[in-house]
Structures are given as C-alpha cells and as structure tokens.
Amino acid sequence: xxxxxxxxxxxxxxxxxxxxxxFGEQLLLAxxxxxLLAVLLGSxxxxxxxxxxxxxRVVAPIQVHDGDRAIVEVRMTxxxxxxxxxxxxxxxxxxxxxxxxxxxxxxSPMVARYEVLCRPRGxxxxxxxxxxxxxxxxxxxxxxxxxxxxxxxxxxxxxPLDGVPTVRGQDPNVNTASANFSLTGGEDFFTLREYxxxxxxxxxxxxxxxxxxQLMIKQLEMPWQSRALVILDPRAQNYQTPEAFEHAVRGAAxxxxxxxxxxxxxxxxVGEPTVTQVTSSQAYAIAMEQLATVGTSPGxxxxxxxxxxxxxGMAGGAMVLVTGTPDESHLxxxxxxxxxxxxxxxxxxxxxxxxxxxxxxxxxxxxVLSSSTSKWAPAWQExxxxxxxxxxxx
Length: 394
Prior knowledge:
By secondary structure, the chain is of the alpha/beta class. The protein is 33% helix and 29% strand.
C-alpha cells in the first residue's frame, strides 16, 4: 500500500490531471502519469520483495526464570535486494522490538538482537514477526508475516537451598542426608509401560515397542528413599494475597529443583489429575512448565486428591507440602501420606506459627516458615539444621 509520501504523490497526480483537463497542457498530463506510475511500480516492487523474506529466531538462555533477562536473536534473509526493511517482533504480553535495515542484500542475513525482561512467570508467544519493505523512493510499503511463532517459557524464580531432608537408608539404623539414587542409572529393571511425554528415549524397549506397535518404556525400580513428593496446595482460600501464592510457587519450584539436583526422583502435584514424576531432564522441564502456568483452584477437593495419590502406591524418603496458612486439611494430608514418607516438610507462607504448624512440629514434621516478602533459603537452612540436630540427638 502507499506510504504517506505515496499518498501525497497520488494526490499530486490527481491535481495535475485536473489541471490538464482545464488547461490542456500535455506536460501536466505527463507529470500526473509519472507520479501514478511511480507509485504503481513501487507497490509492485515491495510486493515481489516482501514475499521472499525468511525469518528465524533464537532465544537464549533456553531455561528462563522469573526476573531473568533473555536475549532474542532475529535473523532475516531475503532472496532479493531490499532498499529498506522494518522488522517488528512482538513478545505478546511483554512488549515489542522494531529494527530498521537500510539495505538487505540477497542471501546475506540481517541479524538483530533485543533483550526481554521475563516477568512474571508464564508462557509467552514470540512472533511471528512483521516485516515491512519500502521501495527506493519510499512511495509504497508492503507488510508480510514472516517466520513462525515461538514459545518463551518463564519458570518461577528458584532460590538455591542448602541441605536436604534427613532420611533413612536401607539400613534402618543408619541416617543419611542424601539420596541413594544416581541419575545416570544403576536401578533395577521393574516392568514395561507405555511412553509418556517427558520420558527419556534412551529407556525405550525397542523389541517390545516393535511387537506392540507403540513405544514402550523400561520402568526402573529406584530405591524407595530416593523418591520424593512435592505438593503445591492451589486452593485460593489458603492464601491471604496473590503475592502469597506466588511465593508458594517459588517455594515449590525451589524445593523441586533442589531435590532433583541432589539425586532424588521427585514427583510434583499442583492440583492436576495426575502426578508428574521427574526422572529426566525432559520430565523436569515439564514439571517446571506446570509451575510456570499454575493458578489457584478455589473448588479443589484436596482430601480426595490425596486419597487418589495414596491408592497409586506413592511412598518414599521425603514429602514437601507447600501452602499458605496451614489448617486441618493439611494435617489430614499429613495423616494420609505422611506415614508413607520418612520425612515430611511443610513450607508455609507465614512467619507466625499457628495451631496447625505447632501440631505439625509435635508430630515430627519439619516446618519452613517464610513470609511473602522474605526468602525461602534462610528458613530452609535453619529448618534443615534443626532436623539434623534432632536426628543426631535421637
């Protein structure tokens, strides 16, 4: 379509044509034809050039957490020479970046970079980019949608935690503060099951997959003390403010990452019908993406969900319950699942113990208290030190 200068040229052409009708001067008609032809040729030029643009996009780093900055590199290649190109790349919900290239040579990529402040957590759509090309006289422009849309997953902010829950090894008389599980293997073969998203493809049992015409995964039995369960309570009534829920999400993400890095195979429940088991880097990314998009669920039946988890046979070394203000329903979770885990940790978004927290402590659970304006790491470390001293004394 014509640019502002193009519309002015068309207006001049119309005025010259009217003057030619009135005065009959051939030079006026020639000038009107020249302006009209220039705009038409410019429109043809930009249409032909704009339809031969390829776009690519690279986001670094791949894993981005709330508050981090990501660098987006946009690469444009044209099969024709462009006099001027304007590229606009939109990060929906976060902003947009625009670049201008005075000249783009054929098969010579134009590379541009911009920085994105990734906040808050969530999944954002990048692009597709819009490319506007102009003719040499800037009389016409043509906009095309180039490239494909990409995803930017912003994980919750993670705090580095110090210390892991003290659980008992296979010898009931020996305490250990680390899991007996190696992420590189060493587990015993247990059974076969169907492939699920996030499973490690190196564990595909190809003979069975060929017989059944679907991918089958070798399910490996891991030491029970290497298992952990992270429960994020998504019920809105247990959080005084939205900031309190966000702090709980950060706590769950920090606990999940911390346990996974220390050799545990943690499972995550955030209110979904199923539990996500983290046994590989792909499964870890899926679990963190769940935490990136989780929201509050006012009508969730926590007791029924916990009963389903116990019927599935979940048990292990550590259970982490993350919530806002604990109440009787959380004590019910402890009574139902706590007997199947050696150590239970309650991460509460508060700095004042209530009756439920005191009952948790009396029952032997480790409590980690942190208000929404503070950090989890100091409270976690203090709780681990208390747990180690009590375990040593006992």
